Amino acid sequence: MTQSKEDIRSRVRACKSMLGEAERIAAASRVFDRVRSMAAFMMAHRVLLYHSLPDELSTREFIDSFADDPDKQFFLPRVNGLDLEILPYERSRMHLGAFRIEEPDGDETVDISDIDLVIVPAVAYDRRGNRVGRGKGYYDRLLSRSKAVTIGVCYDFQLFDEIEAEEHDIPVHFVVADGHDIYRGRRR
Prior knowledge:
The protein has 188 residues and is α/β, with parallel strands linked by helices. The protein has five helices and twelve strands. It has helices at 5-17, 21-37, 39-43, 60-64, 138-143; strands spanning 46-48, 73-80, 83-88, 94-96, 102-104, 117-120, 124-126, 131-132, 149-154, 159-160, 174-177, 182-184. The two termini are 23 Å apart.
């Protein structure tokens, strides 16, 4: 029997509250080392990444490790009403935006069709790439217009056997959990 999205959010929130800082750092390192070794990431030039909240796998070290790499350009989302805009990442051009997430400054937005790969945050995933977000639908709306390869990243306890997908839910191509293999998801 599948759990409701609210039950999943509650369970994951409880597990996250028990993580120590060393566990958070180690998990992020394991996950992003796996992402770094994936062919989809190695071939991508323009990567959309989320700027992590304190309870999410940290993306800061990962993005900073590519600061001098001419083959990778990173982008971050910025909330604009009900949608996400995509802007180039520059550490010196960030501000605290919607939902207390650091967002990029500037006007040079990029269309999702120009992005090669999207690393997608979520509250939970299943092994088929279905996801539970925070409930606002930002990424579902963005990914519905994308042809980019998508990778979901998560702690082990965020990985479920099955998540009930609704018509508007957009699954990811791959799911990388910190203690497991890479799961190949599906896309509609």
